[in-house]
Design a protein that fits this description.
By secondary structure, this protein is of the alpha/beta class. The protein folds into three domains: 171 residues, MoaB/Mog-like domain (Molybdenum Cofactor Biosythetic Enzyme, Chain A, 3-Layer(aba) Sandwich), CATH 3.40.980; 78 residues, Alpha-Beta Plaits (2-Layer Sandwich), CATH 3.30.70; 154 residues, CinA-like (Maf protein, Alpha-Beta Complex), CATH 3.90.950. It is built from 16 helices and 17 strands. The longest helix has 22 residues. The chain is elongated. The relative contact order is 0.08. Belongs to the CinA family. It comes from Secundilactobacillus collinoides (Lactobacillus collinoides). InterPro entries: CinA (IPR050101), CinA-like_C (IPR036653), CinA_C (IPR008136), CinA_KH (IPR041424), Competence-induced_CinA (IPR008135), MoaB/Mog-like_dom_sf (IPR036425), MoaB/Mog_dom (IPR001453). This is Putative competence-damage inducible protein.
Length: 415
């Protein structure tokens, strides 16, 4: 299946906002073996949108339009597509009831333009909007490319893609049968190294296929297969997963699009009845905030320390002044003391510490990206490890947080 993405919105065309929806959708489609050969951004102009859409209809099997489904005058995607396909627009009853109920509850006037969001292409399958009001469409075109209409706001778009569109595409499959896909998540290994380790598998890939994606601090592999049945496709994927694990299994921390490293670590701590704390300098609380995003973390996380200034390290963690004076804050010694003191003060089983240079300037003659991460685990002596991260302040912090989580994961694996 060859798909084409058309993002609609003058704000996208002028660069006022980034087209993150297009990138997100393209990755999702590639992960299930759907080719994307064209992406277009077009402004809120009916004639130009119709021209772009009609061209896409001629060269693609599936045309997906993003945006222009709202209640304002420039939201004309459904109307333009309906005209080009020579089909009528119909009202989705469930969507209209949702809009009406919201307007009544909020005490707002249920105006005609709001009701436009409940319109869909006649005979199209509705894609419910779980977080908004503009209904999506999946129109199986008897005389051309199938058409999908998706809302533009990312909070509505991503959920509709994940929960409505992708399952339908997976069920529909391809001319070769059913599609099955699995995501493997890796930490502690770079994309280039992972791809090198798997180069023969990637070079020879036919079915299943392997698609690597690099993220900040981690790498994912999406393995996708087609077969005559779901069970057969899953078996092909599992065989490839087993081969990947033979080579780089120690770096694989989990599976799935939504299974984060923080979730994996927190769940392992809960299962083992182990508590965790942290002492953060350069990450300024980001590690603890990441833990806090995981439901149920309160069972293992009593709290922690953010000791950004040297004085805070001494006063809150009781680190001897001479440690900071003699070795500096960007040092193994300070990282070790931060971890062991945080663990002792909150009486936890595990503690991690972060100290270093987030940048952009040097600190203690150390370049940006120099990071020491300490870990104190149960009754073992505290340790600290040196890392060198890159790509700016925010990414240095994010990489530090993920690496700290991975150090805990490794301790749990070996103890």
């Amino acid at each position: 299946m060859n798909a084409e993405i058309i993002a609609v919105g003058t704000e996208l065309l002028l660069g006022q906002i980034a087209n993150t929806n297009g990138a997100y959708l393209a990755q999702k489609l590639a992960g299930i073996g759907v080719n994307v050969y064209y992406q277009t951004v077009v402004g809120d102009n009916p004639k130009r949108l119709q021209t772009v859409f009609e061209g896409a209809q001629k060269r693609s099997d599936l045309v997906i339009l993003i945006g222009g489904l709202g209640p304002t005058k420039d939201d004309l995607t459904k109307q333009v597509v309906a005209k080009a396909l020579h089909v009528e627009l119909a009202t989705d009853t469930a969507a209209l009831e949702k809009i009406t109920a919201f307007q009544k509850q909020s005490g707002r006037l249920n105006t005609a333009n709001n009701r436009l969001q409940a319109l869909k292409l006649a005979d199209a399958e509705s894609l419910p909007n779980e977080t908004g009001f503009a209904v999506g469409d999946y129109y199986r075109n008897p005389s051309g490319a199938d058409v999908v209409l998706l809302p533009g706001p990312p909070s509505e778009f991503t959920i509709m893609v994940d929960r409505q569109l992708m399952p339908r595409l997976m069920e529909q499959g391809t001319e070769n049968g059913v599609i099955f896909s699995k995501v493997m998540r890796f930490i502690g290994i770079g994309e280039s190294e992972l791809v090198t380790d798997l180069s023969d598998l990637i070079d020879q890939q036919t079915n299943p296929t392997i698609a690597p994606y690099a993220k900040v601090g981690e790498v994912t592999l999406r393995i996708t297969a087609t077969a005559e049945s779901t069970a057969a496709a899953e078996s092909r994927v599992d065989q490839m997963v087993a081969e990947v694990l033979k080579r780089d299994g120690k770096y694989c921390y989990g599976y799935g699009d939504d299974n984060s490293l923080a979730q994996v670590v927190v769940h392992q701590l809960i299962e083992r009845h182990l508590s965790v704390t942290a002492a953060e300098s350069l990450t300024a609380g980001e590690f603890q905030s990441t833990l806090g995003d995981v439901p149920g973390v309160s069972a293992v996380f009593p709290g922690g320390f953010v000791t950004y200034a040297n004085e805070a390290k001494v006063s809150l963690l009781s680190i001897p002044q001479h440690i900071v004076d003699d070795y500096g804050v960007v040092s193994k010694e300070t990282a070790v003391w931060m971890a062991q003191q945080a663990k002792a003060k909150l009486a936890t089983d595990v503690a991690v510490s972060f100290t270093g240079v987030a940048g952009p300037d040097k600190l203690e003659d150390q370049p940006a990206g120099t990071v020491w991460i300490g870990i104190a685990y149960k009754d073992q002596p505290a340790e600290a490890y040196l890392f060198n991260f890159a790509n700016g302040r925010a990414q240095i912090r994010r990489s530090s947080v993920l690496t700290g989580l991975n150090l805990i994961r490794q301790k749990l694996m070996t103890n």
